[in-house]
Amino acid sequence: MNPSYDVVIVGGGIQGAGVAQAAAVHGYRTLLLEQHTLAAGTSSRSSKLVHGGLRYLESGRIRLVRESLREREILLRIAPGLVARRDFFIPLYASSRRTKGHVHAGLWLYRLLAGGSVAGFERVPARAWEALDGLETAGLKAVFRYGDAQTDDVALTRAVARSAEEFGAEIHIGTRFVGAERAGVGYEVRSVREGVVATCETRTLVNATGPWVAQTLSRVLPGPPRLPLELVAGTHIITEGVLGKGCYYVEAPSDHRGVFILPWRGRILTGTTERLYGGDPALVAPTPAEIAYLQETLAAYFPGLPTSVAESFAGLRVLPKSGRDLNGRSREVVLLADAPRPRFISIFGGKLTGYRRTAEQVMERLKLVLPGRIPRADTSRLLLPVG
Ligand SMILES: Cc1cc2nc3c(=O)[nH]c(=O)nc-3n(C[C@H](O)[C@H](O)[C@H](O)COP(=O)(O)OP(=O)(O)OC[C@H]3O[C@@H](n4cnc5c(N)ncnc54)[C@H](O)[C@@H]3O)c2cc1C
CB within 6 Å of ligand 1 — which residues? Predict the structure, then answer.
């Protein structure tokens, strides 16, 4: 068999687009299969932050935060039209669980892990609180400001996919992967588009189907390694109003979880929640209780803003199964291969922010079995196309 592709990727979210870009840039014949449209899954339902994840410091995920901060800096450089630096504010009240010392120490570490290359953090003086978009000032004891970044997750995914196409990758939208079987030096892959079945051969296959990762695994023969996992749903609401100063990271009044209140396309995005989800990934949706929890949080911090919901959406995180509570679970991406010299790799979990590094890690492993090629660019320096 002389395979038509070196790398076939299933899934057109940020991870699949990232691997398609990395594979094409490394000079490989690349095909990406997406059943719906690009970013149809979790990659259109995130909090739209490109960040280290300040809250992960609380669960000791130092390496994850450091790597994500490094990727944030790269994305600010290579996607200036898509990833923008924003001011974030953390208000602390008499009722807050986190103390000033706690937040100060966290932001100090966050800056240190970012390599000191970013704007630092500061206490916002009390005289400036009134200018913070109508933030509740009763009981307010301190406000911290730090820098992080925001993106449009769909636009970012499309830009990465377009970059992949510019380097020769084929992207087949509306094409569902239905199965693959080990054959010759790789896999024979079957897909369906508008009822028509097509087959192709590939040296390597990548499962980047996010919340569908387990379904995809069950369609591959012989069965590749699996990871016990859980899907965790997170909801956001969009409400009317303007946040001109930046983004807010607050404690939900009912359970003290961290919640973001963010400016988003002239309105306000509030999220997120966390609950275990056992249903069909395609059917995940916000629950009334989640929406009420987010409305209550928004109203507590911005009492002057309307809380009626213009839109809401839910997305799914893929987390390794463990005894820890949802907040304390690892957010690190796991790559599971069929062999030390892999022909098949599944991507479990991860963050939007880390897509580029994950893709490079996938390619490092696939290159062990792929023919040698001279890379045509470096994805850490390659500007992403805008528009
Ligand atoms: C609520 C929430 C908030 C988040 N916020 C952030 C954030 O602010 N910053 C951050 O860095 N990360 C964030 N994340 C994490 C980030 O959004 C995800 O890690 C990322 O979007 C996952 O991308 P993915 O490509 O793995 O999966 P997906 O985006 O779900 O892509 C999988 C794709 O596979 C396709 N597919 C499935 N089965 C098939 C098949 N048989 N054939 C063809 N195609 C198929 C699907 O249609 C889908 O498009 C958040 C996650 C959640 C849930």
Answer: 10-16, 33-36, 40-43, 45-49, 176-177, 208-212, 216, 234, 272, 315-317, 350-353
49: which strand partners?
150
What is the distance in A from the centroid of ligand 1 to the CA of 314?
A: 11
What CA–CA distance (Å, rounded) separates 378 from 247?
32
- For the chain, residues with pLDDT lower than 50 are none
Please write the tens of the pLDDT for every residue from 24-43: 999 999 999 999 999 999 99
User: Which numbered atom of ligand 1 lies nearest the CA of 219?
Assistant: 41
Q: Where are the domains of the chain?
A: 5-42+154-228+331-366, 229-320
Question: In angstroms, what is the span from residue 210 Cα to ligand 1's centroid?
Answer: 5
Amino acid residing at 41: G
Q: Cis peptide leading into 222, omega within 30 of 0? A: yes
The answer, as to whether pTM is greater than 0.85, is yes
What single letter denotes the amino acid at residue 265? R
What does the alpha-carbon distance between residue 333 and residue 20 come to, in Å, rounded to a whole number?
Answer: 17
Q: What is the pLDDT of residues 132-145, one digit of tens each?
A: 999 999 999 999 99
Q: Rounded to 5 degrees, what are φ and ψ at 143?
A: -130, 130
Rounded CA gap, 159 and 150, in Å? Answer: 15
C-alpha–C-alpha distance, residues 223 and 125, integer Å: 59
Instruction: Please name which of 50, 164, 148, 146 lies closest in space to residue 104, comparing C-alpha atoms.
Output: 146
* Superfamily in which the 229-320 domain is placed by CATH: D-Amino Acid Oxidase, subunit A, domain 2 (3.30.9.10)
Name residues whose C-beta falls within 8 Å of residue 92's C-beta, 6 or more positions apart in sequence. Answer: 98, 99, 100, 103, 140, 141, 142, 143, 144
Residue type at 314?
Answer: A
Alpha helices (runs of H) in the chain, residue ranges in sequence order = 14-25, 62-78, 100-113, 153-166, 213-217, 288-301, 355-366
Which atom of ligand 1 is the closest one to the Cα of 18? 25
Domain over 5-42+154-228+331-366 is classified CATH 3.50.50.60: yes
